[in-house]
Amino acid sequence: MSTIPLQVEAVSVRHGRPWLLQGVSFEVKPGEVVALLGRNGVGKTSLLRVALGLMPSAVGGVRVFGRDPWRQRARALARVGVVPDTPDAPPELDARGLCRLVAALHERWDDTATRARLVRFEVPERVPFARLSRGQKGAVMLALALGHEPDLLVLDEPTLGLDVIARDAYFGELIAELSDRGTAVVLASHDLALVERLAERAIVLHDGAVAADLTIDALKSRFRQGGEPLDLEAAFARLALRKAS
Amino acid sequence: MRFRAVAAIAGREFRERWLLLPTALFVGVAPVGLANWYLPAAQVAERDAVGALYIVTFSLLAAGLVGASLAGRDLVDRRLGFYLARPVGWVTLLSGQGVAAGALLLCAVVLVILPSALTSPELGSRIAGSPLAFATGPLAANLGVLALVTGLSAGLFGIAFRVRSRWLLVDLLGLAVLAALARHALLRLEAESSYPHFTTDHVVVVCATAGLPFALGLAAQLACGRGDPIRAHRAFSLTVWSLLLALGMLGLVVLEQALAGGIDRPLWQSARTTVVSPDRRWEWVVTEKASWLLGRTAFLRRTDGTRVERVGSNWSTAPVFSADSRRVAWTEFWPATGDGDVVVVDLGDAGFRRVGTLPRPRAWGQALALSPDGAWLAVVDVDGLRVHALERGADVAKLALAEPARQVARAYFLDADTVCLRALPARRARAADYRIEVASAVVTPLVAGAPDACTFAVP
Questions:
Q1: I need a surface site. Which of A20, A129, A230, B269 has the fewest CB within 10 A?
Q2: What does R_g of chain B's alpha carbons equal in angstroms?
Q3: With a threshold of 0.80, does the pTM exceed it?
């Protein structure tokens, strides 16, 4: 079995007649944190869906640890943790019930570590998921995604709607996870502060193709103002505007 | 497929819809309780019919709701939903949901049936043992199959509706055209029902056979999430409806050819019951083979083979002919509801016509008798005798037996005015025979086998 967490090879996706993505290729190596950037509707979530075996690519293919997620979804995703953009779990279950349910869906599960994470996030164990705050729901999603000690973590807009404190707790947990286990991460986000703190490499999608595949520092230093490199937000805006024009 | 994951998903899906179970129990209790509230105790049959109606309606409604809520938005929307964010294959996910739906429906059907079955032994025995009028096997088993088909259909249409598939309109149009074709075929069969080998059974079987691959194929395509649901729906709508409609048209052509060509197959070889009229011109035949949807089938046939009439698509008792062979009477009944009719048909040269129907006698073990000229019909049940003038459509006499009978073994007209009958009294093992003069309303108990004119051939 391949040790490369994610290989995207010339993936093209179409929604109806127009192509949404065309010939997108990249690779995520073990322990690497890659940010997937792009404007709304550029195809970030569609690319993640293809990577997670939820839809097929029209052309090209994806390999997750060497397996085709469309054909071997369960095996391909066995070492993958996913945090969706919208926290979604059975509303009547509390954190304990969710842990039990998710544990049954995975081959391996570290219940102690998951409970410890939930305690660190200050998530009440006995409150149904539906009655948790937005930040607590996001924390539960992250804890559940990390419970089986994944080697690849896919985060789709994980901090959407989180306040500053919840976001800091989120960062802390992620950074601890990355430093402890060297998990590879694919992060699709508009939260460039989060990206700048976590990611070492950025893949910028524009017009259905990869517009840039650079380290964060290279991306920032590519756009300078008064001889100084721009911050990531300004660099991304500059790149997007240039491509649009 | 991992069984632990299947069990976890099934348990979760079951728990999410647990409210269905107390609802089923309430609905199960309600028909008997409510019916007892507003129906007199004597109207047990009505109460049980209400109960059966509640049970069937609720079960199918529950199946539709459960089916429509399964397969869920995750599958349709392709979002990173709860299950789809885990290493769960499509087969595991659908198996878990399917197990939950099956268990939920099974529990709901049992809970809705149980109170009525326990409080009304007659309804209980019908549910457990009686076939539906249109399907063999116990009512409960048929209900299970119907619930399964309803749930599957609701799930499929739920997916198609969720993805806003315009091909739903094609489905509805195809369904309407197919229904129109089926209706036309049924009317033609009704009008030209001289060829019993081509009955409505075949139409139903053809539709069901064609519908099954349609449902399974659509289920596989839509629910398994392979490809775009709308494109899958389009492919199936186009292929299946064009195939079904072509088959339907072909079926109509074959039907017309059969009706016009006079193909007559030896159905009689498989006759289960045969009764011949006194003049040997007519033969009553009940086919051996139970049809899939319509139960056993009864025919009246001229023994020279020139005419065959399908007279009963449901369950029928053996008929009695009048001595002049001009009329024949039998009882048709619907076991699922306990309803039934006594049917009288005129076999005269003028034509084959139904003279009239009367409500079925109250309990089993009834006997029928036609007067020698076929003018009167005697209907005997455990309470007594009712003589009905068929031409006038009114009762001539109602006479009680000396003691209530638990079964009536046989009855016949001795002459135009006298009925003899043998009954098994409720409290004695020995049969009691009666001679009844209708005009004078005299009921005379006889000694069985007495050397008068009223001697019974059947002990």
A1: B269
A2: 28
A3: no
